[in-house]
Design a protein that fits this description.
Blueprint lengths: L1 E4 L8 E4 L10 E9 L2 H6 L16 E9 L11 E4 L2 E2 L5 H4 L10 E2 L7 E4 L4 E3 L6 H19 L7 E5 L3 H12 L4 E6 L5 H7 L3 E4 L4 H9 L3 E6 L6 H8 E9 L11 H6 L3 E4 L5 H12 L9 E6 L3 H7 L8 E5 L3
Parallel strand pairs: 10-11, 10-13, 11-12, 13-14, 14-15, 16-17
Antiparallel strand pairs: 1-2, 3-4, 3-8, 3-17, 4-5, 5-9, 6-7
Amino acid sequence: MRAAVMQGLHKPLLIETLPDPTPGEGELVVKVGRCGICGSDLHMTEDASYGRSAGDVLGHEFAGEIVAIGKGVEGYRTGELVSVSPLQSCGHCPACLAGDIAWCAQFGLQMGGYAEYALTKPNQCVKLPQALSLADGAIVEPLAVARHGVGLSGIKAGDKVLVLGAGPIGLAVAFWARRAGAARVVLQDVADYQRERALEMGATDFVVDREDPVGASTRALGGLADIVFECVGVPGLIAQAVGQVRARGSIVLLGLCSQPDTFNSFAMLSKEIRLITSAFFTRGEYEASLDVLERGAAEPRALITQTINLAETPDIFESLKHRTHQCKVMIAPAG
């Protein structure tokens, strides 16, 4: 099979021919139909703390067709279309049975979507409803990540919400926040590229102001936010969020920041701000994200800005390391 293979840190991906995967006992092989390029994939080729190295095949947001089934797998047939959750687990411990997959002792992150075929397990697969496409199946993962963060926030109808960062996660947070009843959802970024997409996804306003971000968000919200979602992951944004949230409000961290960060703890303490961290999602949240698409929510499809073939992947992947109009680029490895 062909795959876009990591060559090492700070190096572009390279299309290589690798052996086709063969399912062992309890495993499936999926012909990858669509795989999203995630911001964390970009970081994995630049930051050693992510633990990726030469020879790895990235890609954890994918959907496809089951083409081979190993011994002991029940409930699936070849030819079925599935969305693949990247959260690997044993499938039978108390955490797994409760749907809290990320807290399994055998937890891991499935990669391999930048290839024509990927090996996975049945407890990671959710069958795609007939009305949904492979692209729908591939945007479920970022939707579920955002849904988890919104669920942890304690959001209430009528809340004023500020979202920092207009990437796919920030945009998906805006979508879920409006569905949860937020009265105002302001999306704030350092560039204007995603303004129209943000409004389409549910934001009531879009703010760009590098000189006075706190004042700009406060004016747009008509006061300080009840909840601030930090969806970027760069140093300094926690400190900024402290100034943007009301007393006894909440800051939810969804952005992945691998660098040390500092903020004035007294400023946070004196307002009794809740600082909440959010990682991954539950099985129920993944299924609910697929369900919202099946029930007709079209807004999340606005995340997808381009679909490319496997040969185009190395060049497009490198271009995404710089801010552009792109949001979610999908790879069609088998196309």
